């Protein structure tokens, strides 16, 4: 997969796409069962990373709208429950 700068993409953070986009994207690409399992695990990791960035004192806290931290926390809990 090529990135916008012409380099090779090694990692894609699907959580930056938007909550509703990820499932649609995954249905459009052919993944093995192992790749699907890795995507599910990585999604939880990335969602948790975004949550940490949104906590007070971290880079994303002031740049995001009020309520973003709470919304992301609910999203992480939803992914962990699923």
Helix content: 40-55%
Give the H and E element order.
HHH
Secondary structure class reads mainly alpha
Question: Total number of helical segments?
Answer: 3
Q: Characterize the main sheet.
A: none
Strand content is: under 5%
**Radius of gyration, whole Å:** 14 Å
Mean pLDDT: 81
Write up what this structure looks like.
This protein is mainly α. The protein has one domain. It contains three helices and no strands. Helix 2 (33-54) packs antiparallel against helix 3 (68-81). The termini are far apart. The mean pLDDT is 81.
Give the helix/strand layout.
Layout: H1 21-28, H2 33-54, H3 68-81
Helix pairs in contact: 2-3
Index terms:
82 residues; mainly alpha; 3 helices; 54% helix; globular
Concise summary:
This protein is mostly helical and 82 residues long.
